[in-house]
Amino acid sequence: MEPSLATYLALSGILFTIGTVGVIFKRNAIGMFMCIELMLNAVNLTFVAFSRYYADVTGQLFVFMVMSVAAAEAAVGLGIIIAFFRNRSSVDVDDASILKN
Amino acid sequence: MVTTAFFFLFAGLAIACAISMVYHKNPLYSAISLVGVFISLSCIYVTLAAPFIAAVQVLIYAGAIMVLVVFVIMLLNLEEDKPLGRLKYLYAMGGVLGVVLLVQTFFIFYAVSREPKQTVKTDETVGETLSIGSAMYTEYLLPVEIVGILLLMAIVGSVILARRFAQPQLELIVDNELDMRDAQTKEESSDELQGLETPRFR
After folding, report:
1. Ranges in chain B, pLDDT < 50
2. What residues of chain B lie within 8 A of the CB of A94, using their CB?
3. Predicted model pTM
4. Which residues of A touch B143 (CB under 8 A)?
5. A50 at the B interface (CB within 8 A)?
6. Candidate CATH numbers 3.40.50.880, 1.20.120.1200, 1.10.260.40, 3.30.200.20; the one for domain B1-80
7. Chain B contacts of A82, Cβ < 8 Å?
8. pLDDT tens readout for residues B181-199
9. Residue B95, CA distances (Å) to A23, A85, B89, B92, B156 in order
10. What is the ipTM of this complex?
11. What are the b/e assignments for B17-26, b being 16+ CB within 10 Å?
């Protein structure tokens, strides 16, 4: 007896919702970054669940790709955060308003 | 039965850690909670018979990415998250968006549960490293190469971002300016001094 596919999808949807709400509520860039990682993980869970229930290896390969993209995103995103901190000495996204007006 | 118990245990843990991540104002607590989410998700991958993905999840996410994030938090010495200053309407927007996404989630749950039971193909070899590796280097060779190039670009990009490009020149200009001003004031003051001192000596 295993949990059904719908249960995994529900868990993934709940995690994705928490990540989305977190991106909107968090004010510092690192918090938003971590919420985006959570959303990527929720999507990975659906990939693995479908891969299990259709007995197809493609889903797990795409999880691997998503992880590589997340690693690249972490390197570049944290570089941007550090560059921003160097200029403004804060990582608050409300301060990132140079392009406004 | 054991699988179901494990699934619900780790699903609860993952949701609790995710909520704690959003709730905590201190970024370090958020990072630790996110590590909890990653580890419970990797346990869920084990219940889905995907041991390779579970191991890679712990290695890459909990090992590499979160270490990077914690390093940055430590380097920047961040204080606690301030409450929303302006953009108060974001609270309402986030609440509405969260409710909509939750409703969608439950709709998906309902719709997929109502589907006539698909015959679950339990092919235990799918999650093994052998099958993933052979698919990766035969059928999906091009995407793997593209991901390699993407990682290379990320390395180059982060090195360029982390270097101080414009600032050294700016600092040089500012330093030169200050030096010139210093020299000027020194000359003036020395002139004055000479003007003052010369009569005294004579």
Report:
1. 198, 200-202
2. 85-87
3. 0.82
4. 61, 65
5. no
6. 1.20.120.1200
7. 72, 75-76, 161-162
8. 788 877 766 655 555 554 5
9. 12, 29, 10, 5, 39
10. 0.92
11. bbbbbbebee
